[in-house]
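We treat protein structure as text, and this decision shapes the records that our systems exchange. Below, we set out a record of this kind in full and without editing:

***
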Amino acid sequence: MANMFEMKFVFAIYSLYLIPITVAQTTQNINVLLVNEENNALAEKSFEVAKEYVRRNPSLGLAVDPVVVVGNRTDAKAFLENVCRKYNDMLSAKKTPHVILDFTMTGVGSETIKSFTAALALPTISGSFGQAGDLRQWRSLNANQTKFLLQVMPPADILPESIRAIVTKQDITNAAIIFDEFFVMDHKYKSLLQNIPTRHVITPVKSFNKDEIKAQLRSLRELDIVNFFVVGSLRTIKNVLDAANDNQYFGRKTAWFALSLDKGDISCGCKDATIVYMRPTPDAKSRDRLGKIKTTYSMNGEPEITSAFYFDLSLRTFLAIKSLLDSGKWPSDMKYINCDDYDGKNTPDRALDLKSAFQEVKETPAYAPFFIPEDDLINGRSYMEFNTDLTAVTIKDGASIGSKSLGSWKAGLSNPLLLTDPDNMSDYSAQLVYRIVTVEQQPFIIRDDEAPKGFKGYCIDLIEEIRQIVKFDYEISLSPDGNFGTMDENGNWNGVIKELIEKRADIGLTSLSVMAERENVVDFTVPYYDLVGITILMKLPRTPTSLFKFLTVLENDVWLSILAAYFFTSFLMWVFDKWSPYSYQNNREKYKDDEEKREFTLKECLWFCMTSLTPQGGGEAPKNLSGRLLAATWWLFGFIIIASYTANLAAFLTVSRLDTPIESLDDLSKQYKIQYAPLNGSSAMTYFERMANIEVRFYEIWKEMSLNDSLSDVERAKLAVWDYPVSDKYSKMWQAMKEAGLPNSIEEAIERVRSSKSSSEGFAWLGDATDVRYYVLTSCDLQMVGDEFSRKPYAIAVQQGSPLKDQFNNAILQLLNKRKLEKLKENWWNNNPKAIKCEKQDDQSDGISIQNIGGVFIVIFMGIGLACVTLGVEYWWYKWRKRPTIGEITQVMCGNLY
């Protein structure tokens, strides 16, 4: 008994606390027409709690007399008929409704109620979903109507706005928003992420079956979406997370966000997952009131915030109507017409300011205050201004191992996140990891196992510069077939382009040319490299060198003939001088007074003929006339030989430098000794193949024109020419290329060029100028010939419609403005560590090289060496061979004694 007494006492005190005792006042009877839909029973229950609250709090001076209508959101006709019947009954019973409480959520049924209230000018407070302009039947309200046709967005309509705050903060570029039946997102498609460069999908959960959810998630993942927002009940969140766990969609490449109005923590059977979880919390000033209302009035509906919203909306409406009635601002001549009397033009005029009365209600909210703009329209701009907690929940092996508070978000249409540490939030976003497909091509892409991504080169440095601006990570792999991308006769692609089309890659990064057919299936960024054309790679002509090249000017038999003439002439001169009676050796007395006396022995004759061939001259000539005639003949012979040798040596060295048989594509097409071809499947191959096909088509068109029987004789005569008027150069070249065989790799092409016998016979490769230039830069046996033709820019390829195009465009333009691309080109071309400083080749403007004239120095050194040997012989001959022996000295001495 004592316990029962104590309980009654406590209950009495508790009731006194909730129901303050005031002086008696007039009770206002308020007639309410509550319009609700079938799947929103929580709203009707909260309305009943608000009505009970009014009844048990006489100090409020209110008595609510409701009429409830519940309809189907899709059956607008039956819904309207039911509402009109109830409304007409109220008019007949002289219980005209002071206000319509519209708790319909969305759909044609909700819009029908809006049309009904606007047509009959019935004061209405709506809790329907929709932002500014989303309530179609209330879009064109006049100034008076906006004062009594009011809407406040429910919490389920405002919570998804936090997604915008997260996307903005995290710079998210793609998102999938999955919601359940407790949320209405129809109107969010256009407004939720408006003016934000985020590719996103908003889709309802299709089923509670795990397999179907897994299939739904796979389809979203195939769209290259890595950020997932699950908006719904805790049950829905668990089902989706479990399906994601089965699909192995947790890790650094994906980010998961869960938003719910439910109380409690999220759970799932995830093996290892971290989810950013957002849930509302009651306002600190309202927490006690909420607990008392739930305890006293059994407001136990879930979600708690939704129950509190409809409770506050109902109570606030009651108090607003009472305020108008008490203050005398409620019109005394309120005119009502029933549904049957409405003809489309007889809408009653209202001078009722329900908006101001609704704004001025000071009742303490049960969860959080309402935000109602003072100087703007209420509809689509008013909502419960609740707070949400933002936490990172870590789950391992199906159990939560902890949560970390990240901050909060205050409900609003454009409110940002309030983070405790902004840097922490970046740890819970999906790391943008793009799949890059490439083709190895130096110096743009070079395989390097020691590099962070396994590659280095111009393009790697470029993507590293871009990622500093765009913020992403990447995985890079080679094209499976090693091709850049060409289209066959059936319209099928290969190489890098195929990987992008079939969405196995996000980015095509290599020296990829921009071509019209490629632009039809993928998107290209702005060019990152200059226009690059096709040019010719050939073997560098090597001028043969020889230290004794000066000896090769004359043939061997000529040299032998000169040598024979030299010895024969020297011999004859010795004979003439010995037998002539007028020679010096035969007339010593006659020439004894001459200053120069020269006896032409065989040695002197050899010396005379040798020195006569030099600028020094032969010296004193023979005294006899026959010898002098022979010497003059030798001089003439020597002059002719030396002049001929000098002229031929200069011509010989010059002609050897002028061996440049190919200087352009036309030169290549007009010869047959050098085979030529582009790389199989390359853009150069496509160029020549298409040029040849165009020439064939032109020929067919010209032939059809010439043989057209419908032409008159005069018209046909104008087309009659002896020669075909269009060149067939490319047709012949393409045929020659096919006969030569197209190399399947750059290595094969380079090997065929290097295997050429010379620069005038062998193989020439037609390829991209950058490839040709690089191999010339890193080799000393190759040369680039001719000017570039068919020039195209290099650009980065992305999937068609990918937002990466605009992001990369901005980045590349920034790099251009900062001259970063010029620096990259400098690093990989002018300062390339593989560049070889080649020995300078002789050209026509240079002199004779040491390789060709060095033999002369060898002759000098040989002569000096021979002279040194001769000196030794002479010294030995004089010193030892001419010294008398002991026997000779004894004999001489004995002879003197006798």
About this structure: The first strand starts at residue 28 and ends at 37. Confidence is low (pLDDT under 50) at residues 1-24. DSSP finds 29 helices and 26 strands in the chain. The first helix runs from residue 2 to 18.
